């Protein structure tokens, strides 16, 4: 598919109504006014004769990272951390990547993600659920990007400097991203003869490939890992079919 056709297909797929993950989950009406009012305390309650009800503000930069290693950090705020998010139905996140590092390829099974680049530049890579490339775009400070639910993706920092982005998800509940690469990859729990047969490789080779990346969540520059795995490559078409992304 041509780039334009991929973008149009991506837009059409996102317009499809997402079913609730639980039967008792109420529909969520999202708006920037509701989001900002909930996060920054601008909502006014009409039940107290004009008196305003303002929740305390929350500074993402004051929160200890939920994950941190030598290659970056991430902070996540959901309704369990900041209760006003329960009313707006969104979760917040802040990610910092060092130069050349990558947020490991993963997908969000519960929500769509929106992001704003705060500092630096990088690349956003997205694939369709069927494994074909949806988008591979460079982003800079001030750019906005979004990732549909179930679409595998990764964010890669440029080698010129750190890459920082902030955003929100369309669910205030705890986010459980499913990583496709790294020591916390879903492949770790799927290893066995069935998966090896699906990839068309031996169990021994699959074991070496799955364990080749010892880091989790935020990965080092692809160039630093290239020599470690250059002899342990699964055919490209097999990798794409599972939703992996290339760091090129």
From TrEMBL:
SUPFAM superfamilies listed in its UniProt record: RmlC-like cupins
Signal peptide: none
Pfam annotation, one family: Cupin_1
Alphabetized InterPro entries for the sequence: Cupin_1 (IPR006045), RmlC-like_jellyroll (IPR014710), RmlC_Cupin_sf (IPR011051), Seed_Storage-Functional (IPR050253)
Domain Cupin type-1: 58-207
CDD domains given in the database record: cupin_7S_vicilin-like_C
Name this polypeptide is given: Cupin type-1 domain-containing protein
Gene source species: Rhododendron williamsianum
